[in-house]
Amino acid sequence: MCGILGIVKTGDSEISDKQYKKVLRDLFVLSSRRGKEASGYAIADENEILVLKTHLPADEFVHTDEFGKYLQEKLDSNIQKPVSVIGHSRLVTNGSELENNNNQPVIKNGIVGIHNGIIVNDEKLWAEINETRETSLDSEVFFKLIRKKSSEFGIHSGITDTYKDIFGTASVAMLFEENDNLILSTNNGSLYCAVNQQKGIFLFASESLILKNVILKNKLENIIRPEEMIQVKPNNYLNLHTSGLEIEVRSMTVEERVINIKNSCSKKIINNKAFNSSSEISNSHFAMKKSFNPGVEFIDHFEKSADLISGLRRCKKCILPETFPYIEFDENGICNYCRNYYTFKGKGEEQIKSLVRNYVSDNGRPNVIIGLSGGRDSCYTLHYAKNVLGLNPLAYSYDWGMLTDLARRNQSRMCAKLGIEHILISADIRKKREYIKKNVTAWLKKPDLGLIPLFMAGDKQYFYYANQLLKDYKIDLILFGENLLETTFFKYGFCNIRPNLEYKEKSFTISRLDKLRMMWYYSKAYLKNPLFINSSFFDSLTAFQSFYYIPHTYYNLFGYVKWDEEKIINTLRREYDWETDPGTSSTWRIGDGTAAFYNYIYYIAAGFSENDTFRSNQIREGSINREKAVRLSIIENKPRWDSMKWYCDTIGIDFDNAVDKINNIPKLYQKNR
Fold first, then answer.
1. What rounded mean pLDDT belongs to the chain?
2. CA-to-CA distance for 448 and 495, rounded, in angstroms?
């Protein structure tokens, strides 16, 4: 999931060199919201393609001497000739950005290409073609297949057959050593372009909003009208003859054998090494290993703690233990959470269908934004919106640095299969991870169960950007898939806030007074532990505002449709080959890189975790019986050591030290003995 971009000008273009460079810089800077971990470009003229890439984010790359130097050299030497640039702003998935070979553009068999998306079956494809890969990128196999297939059957069949073979999203731009063509292709529509053939200018970007803002910012409305932008539709490709900006748009679903591309030149490809980084840096931050085993003392500590936890008094109806905040048992052993539980009051499928009826249209424009985390509920919501409600969704994801590659791959599966444009907003991931590190380090110094949500504060701007997208895209409907059975009252309880057990349609709805109580609790905790007063403070503050105070005008699918775990999982596996985590039998929060770590803390210190609250709500709904809930909670509360290790490595803390400190926290279930 990245940003791709580009600009082409002909020899007689009315765009000056100064404008050309300014537009390119703005394309990079605005595209950086889709990925801030690496960047690069390829400049092509009739003689060569020069590739320059770096681990610097795009908004820093554009201010380097190298960025302007090579660009100006090409413009100076091609005053009356076309110059093409394709660029990439990377969100890291496969392969560390610190190994420059893993950054883009990719050079493969005479093709220089950039790719936005994730190809989830890349290992299988490499095994089938029986060749050695040169990078960790899933993108590499795409360009390998394009070359292999187009050499045999022509470029149309090469592109069409490659998209048939891959699984996942791929929006790409390609330059070729043997001709002057630029090809753009996509299977989900995350690709927009604008052209004025007479004025000699062509632009493209991953999102219409990026392209529109670049045009407006550079006052190009008289040259390229924003309302005349072209979306490269899903399963189509655009072939641009760069010398005259002649465009052919073709469908990848139409069977044609050969489309000839003019073989007007033979270029030299130069891979510039100006920004190359050490190849010895580990990729452990970006690939969750499944073979990690902790020390024997950690396993022993967990097993001894689990034995003590098994002896806790629990509700006779659900499985909540006596250590749960503000829990009270009656004479029959039933807890107040069960006695005051409001059974699901779903409004019914017919009402949600009636609600969205006015939004359904035949013009192909997006009419609903779907929040897509890559988890089971958001993926099912995207499926339901498209296939059941008949809407034309725009998928939206906010990546704050703790989204796992598994979640990203599932996002890719969904958007590719459904042909849905994916708007990705990426935080400054390095900075966000540094914030998490500071807060976790502060917390380990003085543990407080009420402050654990600080670890997840960085993702709450999700709501802010969702509201912005509604305005930017002039869409009135936003639909999330929030499972109300996942409500976790205990997080408020550990802040000395007695939960309001009335039925809620949305998880963030707590009273104004309780919000003030929470702020008071955090203020006192910060004063007691000044390590929390660090550079993450304002990020945490805006997170609180985004979650509790800005308008949340979205509709929740599961406020209308009863949440059915078996139906959801079966649908996703059957229709989309949806991926689960081999490290756990649960499908809940498997795309969240923080969950394994903080649930281990809750379980070790308090004797329960989110798994217990979720299964207890299922009992109350009649979805499962108590015996099954007990069995599942025992399994799901086992430590996911590999995920915890990934989390520690990713934020840069020592795993052994962190787990040792967690294990030494005074335990609530020992106080009760």
1. 89
2. 9
Whether the upstream peptide bond of residue 105 has omega within 30° of 0, thus cis, is: yes
Q: Are 96 and 281 in contact (CB under 8 A)?
A: yes
At residue 131, the pLDDT reads 85
> What tokens does 285 get?
């931050």
Please list, residue by residue across 243-253, b when 16 or more beta carbons sit within 10 angstroms of its beta carbon and e when fewer do.
bebebeebebe
**From CA 484, how far away is CA 475, in angstroms rounded?**
25
pLDDT at 93: 80
The amino acid that residue 657 corresponds to is: N
Report whether 420 contacts 395 (CB < 8 A). yes
Tokens 């802040």 sit at which residue?
495
Band of residue 455 on the pLDDT scale cut at 50, 70, 90: very high
Measured distance CA(5)–CA(33) in Å, rounded? 13
Ordered domains of the chain (ranges, CATH)? 3-271 (3.60.20.10), 296-671 (no CATH)
Report which DSSP code applies to 100.
Answer: G
Which residues are 185's β-sheet partners?
Answer: 172, 237
Name the one residue in this structure whose structure tokens are 């110094």: 445
The one-letter amino acid code at 226 reads: P
Tokens linked to 298: 């950690």
Cα angle for residues 205, 207, 213 (degrees, 5° grid) = 80
27: alpha, beta or left? (left if phi > 0; alpha if psi -120 to 50): alpha
Residues 6 or more apart whose Cβ sits within 8 Å of residue 523: none
Rounded Cα distance, 635 and 609, in Å? 12
**CA–CA dist 366, 12 (Å, integer):** 37
To the nearest 10°, report the CA torsion of 282, 283, 287, 288.
Answer: 20
Cβ atoms of 395 and 164 within 8 Å: the answer is no
User: d(Cα 179, Cα 47) in Å, to the nearest integer?
Assistant: 10
Tokens of 619: 């009992």
Phi and psi angles of residue 34, each rounded to the nearest 5 degrees, phi first = -90, -10
Nearest CA among 35, 80, 30 for reference residue 56: 35
Is pTM beyond 0.85? Reply is: yes
Burial class (CB within 10 angstroms; exposed 0-12, middle 13-18, buried 19+) of 187:
buried
Which pair of tokens denotes residue 630? 């007990």
What letter does residue 268 receive in the DSSP assignment?
E
Q: Which of 14-23, 289-298, 447-456 shows the lowest per-residue confidence on average (mean pLDDT)?
A: 289-298
DSSP 3-state of 183:
strand
Question: And the tokens for 292?
Answer: 């990690």
